[in-house]
Amino acid sequence: MKIYSWNVNGIRAVIRKEAFTPFIKASQPDILCLQETKAKQGQAEIDLPDYREFWYSADKPGYSGTAVFSKPKPLQVINGLPRGIIEEYKVTGDTYGDPNLEGRVIAAEYEKFWVVTVYTPNAKDDLSRIPLRYKCWDPAFLAYCKELEKTKPVVFCGDLNVAHTELDLANPKPNQGKKGFTDEEREGFQNFINAGFIDTFRMFKQGNGYYTWWSHFAKSRERNVGWRIDYVLVSQSLKNNVKAADIHPDVMGSDHCPVSITLDV
User: Fold this and answer.
1) Out of 51, 89, 110, 159, which one is annotated catalytic?
2) In angstroms, what CA-CA distances link 169 with 87, 124, 174, 193?
3) Across 91-141, where does the E strand assignment appear?
4) Which domain does 151 fall in, by range?
């Protein structure tokens, strides 16, 4: 089974660039998780008869949003974090809005595992959303994945808006302490690892040079001056089922590229 994740940075823009359908035809994902769709279902012209579509869009038009396109029929699909976890971790609004109204999490249950897609809130250039990320969102999302894991193994994927280690961005030293590479964000990611989740890409490839997002400035993508901020993580019990994990920088249409795993289940 092939599971792909892609921050499309606006699904309608990717379609206008004629990049979406060729990507689907070439990669043939069984499950495709999207982030930053910036659209509601029906606003984008998508003709994929082999897939069931599940959208969770932000209340604010043209902002954030996630979606799951799936060939196998999920047993159930859950949008958003559970109310109990929201209240326990105080995941409430800040000056930018309420992350619970931004379409950031979808969980789809299948026979043998859960697939969860997430679009983690950006810390912002002035780091003003770090308190939300560090104290509320990251702990709440981890708690949710661990709660789901009590029933079945979990695959979670998406734009986590953080480079975990210095190997995960081209220029770590000048970016130390800046959004996406603060101690708080990196600790949030490390907590997923400490809780037993596996960064699948690092099962197969080590070192730097493997990135999933590039700035639009200074021909960053052409020079591969990027960041690895898009991930697929799996429960420890699924580790031996992961047969491949890849980054697909040749897929254009967004400032992010897709990431994927092949799962033998």
Assistant:
1) 159
2) 34, 18, 11, 19
3) 105-109, 114-119
4) 2-263
pTM over 0.85: yes
Task: State residue 45's pLDDT score.
Answer: 87
Beta strands, E only, 120-234: 154-159, 198-199, 213-214, 226-227, 230-234
Instruction: Say which CATH number the domain at 103 has.
Output: 3.60.10.10
Contacts of 16 (CB under 8 A, 6+ apart): none
Number of domain units in the chain: 1
Give me the catalytic one of 110, 119, 211, 231: 119
174 token code pair: 């000048």
Q: How many CB atoms lie within 10 A of CB 152?
A: 17
- Please name every residue paired with 2 in a beta bridge, in sequence order, or none if there are none: 262
Active site residue 4: no
- pLDDT tens per residue, range 149-189: 999 999 999 999 999 999 999 999 999 999 999 999 999 99
230 is catalytic: no
